[in-house]
Amino acid sequence: MALHMPSNQAPATASFGPATTEGESRRIAAAHERADQRVRRQRDLLRPLGWTAIVVVAFGAFGANPHPGLQGKPLGVTLALIAFVGLLALAIGHWYADRSTAFQAAVIVAMATTGVALAALQPQSANELAGGVAVWMAVARLPLALGVALSAGTAIALDAAEALTGSASTTILPTTLLLALLGLVAYFIKQSRASQDHTELLLAQLEDAREEQTRAAAVAERGRIATELHDVLAHSLSGAAIQLQAARKLAEREQAAPPVRNAIDRAGELVKGGLANARQAVGALRGDELPGVGQLESLVTAFRDDTAVNATLRIEGSERKLPAEASLALYRGAQEALTNIARYAPGATTTVLLHYDTDRTVLSIEDHFPQSDGSYSREGLQGVGGGRGLAGMRERIERVGGSAAAGPTENGWRVELVLPG
Q1: Which residues of 254-277 are buried (b: 16+ CB within 10 A; e: fewer)?
Q2: Max avg pLDDT among 103-112, 162-171, 253-262, 277-286
Q3: Domain identity same for 20 and 162
Q4: Is residue 236 domain-resident?
Q5: Of 182, 198, 213, which one is at a domain's C-terminal end?
């Protein structure tokens, strides 16, 4: 006989509860949620059996002697039957499982008491089922030790009531076996569900451990690559910087033409910038904080100081925090665009505009010469994008769901990067 779903309280050896904590991963939280869903499904499936037990006990009470009535023993039968029906209806309700253990235990004890009372008042009836319901509920809904204790107490009380009313041992023994059987079935169902819950929890924890192990291996590999890059690039670029310093001194001593010295100075600046970028890339591999739109002002300031051009940054709209990868993509895009301006349009006035729209973020980098300035020529921009710079910029933006566009304007060049959201 099954009257109620097993408790979500597992034995101490296989504890698994539905509650989640802030430190849990999504996998573990999902395992807890599936356990809750199983509890609800079992409760819904077994609830009709509880109503069936109410009907069976009620018909048994009306079919036995004395019948329910309003005086003497019949009144006692009536009161015991009403109490049992009300308590069982309460116990199979949706909200009963959310009550405290003490409250549930009190309801089960009261239910067992009514079952014993019915057995004592109607010795020739089959009201042992009422006590069996209490045993099932005790094992299924309460912690194991408490449930077993209440079940044993219920069985002893029922056997004593039947013995006092003159029932033969051939009647008492089947009652004891029925109660034991109901308790064992409730225990095994409860244990089975707890084992399934615990297994899912262990699998979720195993997946988390594997993911963490993979992440740790990736971090270790990035650290190794970062060390190799640092050693190689730092050595090579530092050597190039030293050679360029020597070349500059040689050019000064040999009184080389100004364009030669300017080229050497520019090469030195590029090496210095490349060394700084290499260190930044190595730091990113090691997990250091990546640059983003928050560093655009320092990027534009450094570009203005290095190239002595009129470069400005404007921010429009309500600023908001962007995802790290998206913010990095915009920063790298601005960095590449400014590098192209220094290379192909030195001296051009440059405007960097970061615009926060309602559904997108737009970064545009535009350089231009005055219309009357003969130094501007579209031919001077024909090589822009011929390398991997703009292609890499576009790929980086597209990886985060954005788009990139670059092309000539009336008197300059414009790069626009658009990110949704």
Answers
A1: eebeeeeeeebebbbebbebebee
A2: 103-112
A3: yes
A4: no
A5: 213
Residue 205 sits in the same domain as residue 336:
no
Q: Residue 122's closest CA among 74, 168, 89?
A: 74
C-alpha 66/C-alpha 2 separation (Å) is 28
Boundaries of domain holding 323: 291-421
d(CA 316, CA 363): 10
Of 4-8, 162-166, 205-209, 320-324, the one with minimum mean pLDDT is 4-8
17 with 193: CB under 8 angstroms? Answer: no
How far is 49 from 151, CA to CA, in rounded Å?
20
DSSP 100: -
Residues 154 and 295 in one domain: no
Q: What gap in Å lies between CA 401 and CA 119, rounded to an integer?
A: 73
Mark whether 192 and 314 lie in a shared domain: no
Question: Do 179 and 132 meet the contact criterion of CB atoms below 8 Å apart?
Answer: yes
Instruction: Single out the residue of 230, 225, 140, 142 nearest to residue 188, CA to CA.
Output: 140
The structure's pTM equals 0.47
CATH of the domain at 308: 3.30.565.10
Count of domains for the chain = 2
Pairing state between β 403-408 and 349-356: unpaired
